[in-house]
Amino acid sequence: MVSAALRPVRTIAPHSLPRRTEIELRGVSQSYPAGNKGSKTVLSRLNLKVAAGEFVVVLGETGCGKSTLLRLILGQEFPTEGAIEVDGKPVTCIDARCGYVPQKYSLFPDRTVLGNVMYGPENAKCGYLARFRPSFFAYRRNLRAEAQAYLIRMGLRPQDMDKYPHQLSGGMQQRVAIAQALLMQPPVLLLDEAFSALDPSTRASLHEQLKAVWLESKPTVIFVTHNTSEALLLGTRLILLGRHHEARDGETNLLLDMEIPASQLPHSACVKSREFQDLLEHVKQLAYKSSSLCTDDADADPNVEEGNLG
To answer: What domains sit in the chain, N to C, each tagged with a CATH number?
Structure first.
């Protein structure tokens, strides 16, 4: 059983959030064409308010709409129904207020590590003619120093700065992609299973580094994962999505919205605690129950293993 101190809080009431609302979804649904079957609903009737500075982790099995949710917030896609706002403004296109780290990170192969990280803010700040002004050179020096600081913070060494992406391991490339997003200092940071392809030791290191950076600057983070332990270690709030049941059309596929109890323990010690293991089991059982009800989906996967969903 989950102890009273760690019992999940179901659906956070909007008025209980003391900070301003950074992201709001009102009745959001998303469907895609499915050939002769008409359409397939991925997200159904989502109503969410995310306060500025929250670290929200979105958890769920494959096919429950986690990545779709990020694309909708970013403005890469638009909902079939409902409305989305970021900082009180409707999302009508890809939004510069949102930094985005995809699962399959993409770095410019012809630019160095440092050049990749500097590219975004340099081009956002300075047009072609501005590059001939004396102030540009001062700006670029400062930007270079900032970029180096973020890269070192993410675990790269000074000798890595002039390397090209193909000279780095997958884990190092992912560190570069995260530093690239952080340097833009976006008010909203979206990460789509950013650590899923990394080995356990690299993933654990990046957990600590990302959490430390978040504690310092407090951007609003939406972090998608299918790893239950990762979700409970990183976030301040957990959103658990289940697959949409066509037989229950009109119901939301939001299974759980809860605050994640804070822990002062290092991650390695936290995962071994009884409280953490109880909460982990509670979330996994909710996810399993939802998956086992997907009798209308032939490809539903009810297995929940090693803290992973789907």
So the answer is: 14-97+187-250+257-310 (3.40.50.300), 110-185 (no CATH)
